[in-house]
Amino acid sequence: MHATHSTTLEPIGHIESCYPDKFGIPRQPGLAPSAKAQLVLHAPYNDPLAVRGLDAFSHIWVTFLFHKSPPSWTPLVRPPRLGGNAKVGVFATRATHRPNRLGLSLVELVSIDTEGGVALTLSGHDLVDGTPVFDIKPYLPWADGVEGARSGFAPAPPVIRPVCFSQTARTQLNALSDGAAIKALIVEVLAQDPRPAYQHGSTGRVHGVRLSDKDVRFRAFVDDTDRIALEVIEITSGDPT
């Protein structure tokens, strides 16, 4: 017989992200190094004393809530890495539909701003805008990186798609003051092929993804080497909220 214990967690902060929506977010952290976010701490946790010494670490673990996923779970899920068809146990995956909807991401800590509160600048994250954060811990490579560890059904990073830009998209990028940064983020995100797994073999359909304050429209096609590639058709300004 097991003991029943209920715990209430209070967010210590939230994420202000370049990903307004879930669609397009890389399925693991670190796959889009250009992705930036702010982790803003809430009172009373926004005391500069709480992050004293944290700037000595290059990376941190962030514990958060998948707040845009429904509060329900299932014992079996279909990981995209298995084509979206094969089922495995939810605890053998990093799926968002979990009993407590908790997530854990390893992200780069770029800087810490303690003027008028505490805000951490993160890079290479996989967090949607507004994500509630429950905890922060420093990453220790000698303890957290295990040599020879097995990776189950995800032994290597996902296949990287070639990404190109139409003349219209190139013109639109050139007109942006931050065009180089936006282009880098678009390439890193689309290279992961954010489309549902069952669509990865198809071409022609136009998709849209929101990155920062931009709406990006793209399509898949077969390039000259018979590989599926993604073409950015159009980049327009959108409302990040």
TrEMBL record:
InterPro entries found in the cross-reference section: TrmO-like_N, TrmO_C, UPF0066_cons_site, YaeB-like, YaeB-like_sf, YaeB_N_sf
Q: Which UniProt keywords apply?
A: S-adenosyl-L-methionine
Keyword S-adenosyl-L-methionine listed: yes
Q: Does the keyword DNA-binding apply?
A: no
Q: One Pfam family from the UniProt entry? A: TrmO_C
**SUPFAM superfamilies named in the record:** YaeB-like
Q: Which residues form the TsaA-like domain?
A: 9-148
What domain of life?
Answer: Bacteria
Q: Which family does it belong to?
A: Belongs to the tRNA methyltransferase O family.
PANTHER family associated with the record? TRNA (ADENINE(37)-N6)-METHYLTRANSFERASE
Protein's UniProt name: tRNA (N6-threonylcarbamoyladenosine(37)-N6)-methyltransferase TrmO
Its source organism is Larsenimonas suaedae
Query: What's the name of its gene?
Result: tsaA
